[in-house]
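seq:
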Amino acid sequence: MKFYITTPIYYVNDIPHIGHSYTTVVADILARWKRLNNYDVFFLTGTDEHGTKIAQAAKEKGVAPYELCNQMSSKFKEAWQLLNISYTNFIRTTDNKHFESVEKIVQILFDKGLIFKKKYEGFYCVGCERFYVSKDLDENGCCFLHKTKPVLQSEENYFFRVSQFEGDLLERITNLNHKEHIQILPEERRNEIIGKLKLGLEDISISRTAIDWGIPLPFDKSQTVYVWIDALINYLTGIGFPKGEFKKYLPVDVHLMAKDILWFHSVIWPAILMGTDLDLPKKIYSHGFFTLNGNKMSKSLGNVISPEELVNKYGVDSARYLTVTLIPFGPDGDISWESLTLKYNTDLANNLGNLLSRTLKMAEKNFNNTIPQTIPDLSLVKQVGNIFKENFAYNMDNIALHKAAENLQSAITLVNQQIERDAPWKLAKTDKEKLAVSVYSYLQAIDLIAIHLLCFMPEIAQKIWFLAGASGDIQEIAKKYFNSFNIPDEGFSIVNAKLGNSEILFPRIS
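struct:
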């Protein structure tokens, strides 16, 4: 019952933006979900700090590379603290322990004859930190991602015999019944990887001679480890390799990343693991690129959305919810401040916020701000439970967070519709006992909604739990509930419990 989930380690040539936030908040929600399902969760994130781009950026700023890395890495830590990211470990590739891991893995590959030296000439893109062959460039000879022409470089480097693993990789990716099957998602990305593998694998350079800012090869200190090999090994360093009980968390259960780095994670990384006799990742899931109002986000265009901007406009938990539910995980998607605000007002202010506010006001006005003294009617909360029981867990486990959010909104809408049918404002004048039963049933339903909201909006869910008069620790109650999806016979809120004062949790934003 362990669950090991990773984000990519983010390159410190840029400050955190909504793309980084998206992957990291998704990982955080999945980590929280698995914890509620009683898994021993290891959630790894961090920063990638070596390579040409970092050395060049530091030189331009007139600082040492490590000083620049300290500045930029701290910005990612601050952003994840702001967004309430519950990572287990934050790794930096400039950590001494990571040097040890990289040297150990590279030495193992060298000792097994999987690394050899040869002279190589190829087109090198500094932006991607990788070599390209002509067929991988566009019609103008440019890198598809950066739209710049790679520079022809010639070096004598060390190479990794990745071609040796071509057949094994294809078998593990295509054979669903293989004991080390690698699931690559979404399906179209899997097909792209399979197609490229069938064209044949070329051995790759794993060292550089003209770069000082990196980790020296253990068997040839005149060369440094290629930044991508260095970066991928973080998934071992982060769990304690080569010491301690690092194997406890292998294999990786889910690698999350953007689609531009899928090849390295689904081909090069598994080949390294096979070469060192370590367990292969179970699932590699890539998401698409964001555009803002149809335009590519970039610093030069001034249209990059930062975590701070999201939080300042919507609040921490709302920013988390909006970031991961506006667009499905997998395809490319376009976002805008208008679409974010519309979803905020629709899902949170109008639906969830309205449900909580109107229910608390009824209790405040008619029952002295306490849960009414009445026999619990759990029919409504069981209807809500049926909505969740049908596919909420499936959607969470399969990283369909937008669909899990739809389950949440369906449940909230169901309760709001029941309130309209009951017309409690009329019952207050004609049938106080039925009003008591109705208000109590709304509160029980709100409790269950809060439990399902916990991974997305942990602070808001806790607050709703308190406001609705629910008893016990929501985390512990949620763990028991998700074990069976059964609602306790007495519900969650107890008769005569004091309620919180009604307040506007989600002010409408124009």
